[in-house]
Specification:
The chain has 399 residues and is mainly α. It is built from 17 helices and no strands. Helix 4 runs antiparallel to helix 7, helix 7 crosses helix 9 and helix 8 runs antiparallel to helix 11. The longest helix has 29 residues. It is globular, with a radius of gyration of 23 Å.
Length: 399
Amino acid sequence: MTVPPAPTPTPAGTAAPTEASPSPPAPRGPVRDRYFDLLRAVALFRVVLYHLMGWVWLPVVFPSMGVMFALAGNLMARSLRRPAVQVVRSRMRRLLPPLWLMGAIGVTGMLLQGWAPDDDGHPGWWWLHLTFWILPLSDPPYAEGLSGVHGVLGEDWATELAGPLWYIRAYLWYVLLSPLLLRALRAQPWVTIAAPLALSAVLEFGYLDLPGERLPSALTDFSTFGACWVLGMAYQQGVLRRIPAYVVPSVAPLIAGVGLWYALSHGLGDGRELDDISFAQALWSFGTVLLLLHLSPSWSQWPRRLRPFDRLITLLNSRAVTIYLWHNLCILVAATVWDDLWSIDTLAEHESWLLESPWPVLALAWLLIAGCVVAFGWAEDLAAKRRPRVWPDGRRRRD
């Protein structure tokens, strides 16, 4: 949320500026909402932690994907003060180059390991589907079951590489539909907010049966997190400020509670994760995000206790796309390298507790993610038409 700078009061006994006074400084650009930066940084860290640890309760404690889509929806609504075509083109330009870089590396690796048109059953379709690596309106194809590199890269690495791509596809569709969603939100705010939840219920209870895999997959993701995206837009448009302050704290826990009850009654923790139960995910994410937006303190500056984390949070926000795209592969490499230490007899016999611990793997994964930030993060700068930076943590360079 844009927070305008506070006006500077005139000290007592000081004459007001006259025409001869120096002209006031030019107005500054929008001030970053540090609360939103914190939420995005926590969401990214939770994603990495969950994909390594696999703790079922982590998405319940903090629904990262719902938070990330809500924050993106908020930014999109703010940007749509400009012409819609210009905004959509700008968002696509910021999103796609990091994907193209990953695709160039990943697809080349798949081809070198023997992935070919025949693997998709039809050469023509294979080449056509490859265009989804350029414009991911649907899930890009990838090679399954590839062998890895002993001691460095685990088997089926292409599946791990492609794991985060559903987010890119869903994000792209939200961006393309945002001008229409914003118009609907202004006309019928609560109907527009509730519509994705209603669609999620329709899909969950089998009232809409769609053929194939690509369309149902896209609609499921849209309905699961669409309400969060629209909620972020609604927050930016001031919709939440129009309702009495007690309504959100009263209603949001009930919605989230229904989602949690539905998840628990459909196998959560018993071989199923929250992501496997789309309707429960939709309700839980919506209720939690609604509360987080309602409680938003709109920090233009960090509270004292959070100031030591300023550079880290700034870095995570500056390289959010790079981190999300590459983290799965970094986790796989870290786990492969760590598992290979079992071949050292001394460690296997006397330090097995250390080799079994996931925490060194987490630390190694973040080191590899930092390497990806350095190696590939420049694509985000080029996409945003900025000078490429190696480590954009907000630290000012000395002249």
